[in-house]
Design a protein that fits this description.
Blueprint lengths: L1 H7 L3 H133 L1 H49 L2 H15 L3 H14 L27 E2 L1 H11 L4 H8 L9 E2 L1 H14 L22
Parallel strand pairs: 1-2
Length: 329
């Protein structure tokens, strides 16, 4: 019965074994599938992680790419600017090359000049040192002999004061004598009109003889003038020519004087021609400093009045017009 069942039909036990075998196979397959699934899942997770990393790298690369593109554009712009500048500089160089040659020539000339100036400066420096040494030596000598110079200056000042005093006294005496002579001539002329011709001639001769200075007084005055070493001009008399005065002066030299003193002298002596008198007075610059002092202007005015009696002022006389100093008492 059993054999028939084994050969002809399948028994439940066989089916069960077959099912168990199949179950085992399927279980093994399922386990392998599960293991494969797990491995695939792990690989998928790893791949996703790699994808994320790659995506991040892609983003970073894109950023780097954009940055590089920006840098490239900037570089391109800079290159263009540099090319433009290069073109401009090239043009400028073409225009400035002649100027550069001119400047080089000027530089060479100025360099030569500077060398000459430097050599001259060295020579001047050496001369300056020598001059400083000379000046220091002169100053030392001056300090040692300062007292002598002070005494000499005092002596010169005293000499000029004495000369000025003597000249002023002589000038005053000459002025008074001239005033007396002029007034006497006027009085004599007015008196002679009233007197007879013989009486007038007699009176004129007697008056002139009385006013003429004695020979001793004239010699004393001449000796005083020679001792003071101050040149004087000769008196001009009627019928005689005055001594010639050397009025030649250098036109380039500037003459100076005090306007107030000059106006006072002109008013005092009644001189109207100012410019002619100044030219005349230049010959009386005794000290040669081209400055007309009051004494020099006064001496020139005295001789001017003698040579130009028409311009003399009769008001310098000390008498009134109606007074007669020679009237008989």
């Amino acid at each position: 019965m059993k054999k028939m069942s084994e050969q002809g039909t399948v028994t439940p036990e066989v089916k069960l074994k077959e099912l168990e075998n199949r179950l085992d196979d399927e279980t093994d397959r399922l386990r392998k599938l599960y293991a494969a699934y797990e491995s695939q899942e792990k690989e998928l997770i790893d791949i996703k992680a790699e994808i994320e990393v790659l995506e991040k790298e892609i983003v970073e690369r894109e950023i780097e790419k954009e940055g590089l593109e920006g840098l490239l554009s900037q570089k391109d712009n800079r290159i263009r600017d540099l090319e433009l500048r290069d073109a401009k500089v090239t043009k400028q160089i073409e225009h400035l090359e002649p100027e550069l040659q001119k400047m080089e020539e000027k530089y060479s000339r100025e360099k030569d000049r500077l060398g000459k100036v430097f050599s001259i400066a060295e020579e001047l420096d050496n001369d300056l040192r020598l001059a400083v040494v000379e000046l220091s030596t002169r100053d030392e000598w001056y300090v040692e002999h300062m007292s002598l110079f002070e005494e000499l200056n005092k002596a010169i000042q005293n000499r000029y004061e004495m000369i000025e005093t003597a000249i002023e006294a002589e000038r005053q005496s000459q002025h008074m004598q001239r005033a007396i002579t002029d007034r006497m001539d006027e009085v004599i002329e007015s008196r002679a009109a009233e007197m007879t011709l013989e009486e007038a001639e007699t009176r004129i001769e007697s008056d002139k003889s009385a006013l003429e200075p004695a020979p001793e007084e004239e010699s004393a005055k001449e000796s005083a003038k020679e001792s003071s070493k101050e040149p004087t001009t000769a008196k001009k008399k009627k019928g005689k020519e005055a001594p010639a005065v050397d009025t030649a002066v250098d036109d380039d030299v500037e003459w100076n004087w005090s306007d107030s003193v000059l106006d006072g002298v002109l008013d005092k002596y009644g001189i109207s021609d100012r410019d002619a008198f100044i030219e005349f007075a230049k010959a009386y610059d005794k000290d040669g400093n081209h400055y007309l002092k009051g004494s020099e202007l006064g001496a020139a005015a005295v001789d001017w009045v003698k040579e130009h009696p028409v311009e003399s002022n009769s008001s310098d006389s000390t008498w009134a017009d109606d007074a007669d100093p020679w009237a008989e008492k």
